[in-house]
Amino acid sequence: MENFATEPELVSVIRNKEFTDKTSIPDVGDIYFIHELTSENGWTTIRHSVEFVPNNRADSSEDAGFVSQIFSDVPASIFSLIKAAND
Q: How far apart are CA 19 and CA 25, in angstroms?
């Protein structure tokens, strides 16, 4: 049987401040995507962070490598969005 991630589930919302969604990977663990919003001088900044919680074991240094592989293309995606917004 293959392990397929579940659809993201919204697990926490603080209106106009932050929200968190969770994706579960059976027999592997849960990945939490945290999005924090801050406003200053008419600008909104969004800070994204990721937390991986493995199933049935303690955290390990390999977990950081796992998460970084998932998001290795994020910087290029962000710069593409900025370019598209400015074109």
A: 20
